[in-house]
Task: inverse folding
């Protein structure tokens, strides 16, 4: 039985990310690639320090509007984007504006 990402060491997560990248390269369909990319971003989020993402404005990969982080819960950043009253993204998708 496979461990949850939250139970893996950094080395195990890096190995998992490498395997997922290989699967992404071989994906035949866009939908397969999208699922694998989300798995990759989730695994990557567990390798990051959530304290490195204080409240403030961020760019989210694949999104046009800035995202205002209000708080972090686990690996997820919660806040506002545009007219959405609440949105969340894995911290691995964020870069500081």
Result:
């Amino acid at each position: 039985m496979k461990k949850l990402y939250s139970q893996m060491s950094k080395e195990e997560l890096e190995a998992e990310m490498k395997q997922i990248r290989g699967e992404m390269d071989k994906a035949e369909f866009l939908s397969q690639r999208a699922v694998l990319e989300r798995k990759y971003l989730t695994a990557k989020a567990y390798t990051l320090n959530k304290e490195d993402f204080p409240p403030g404005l961020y760019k989210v990969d694949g999104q046009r509007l800035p995202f205002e982080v209000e708080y972090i819960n686990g690996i997820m950043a919660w806040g506002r984007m545009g007219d959405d009253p609440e949105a969340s993204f894995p911290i691995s998708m964020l870069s500081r504006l």
Q: What stands out?
A: The first helix runs from residue 10 to 26.
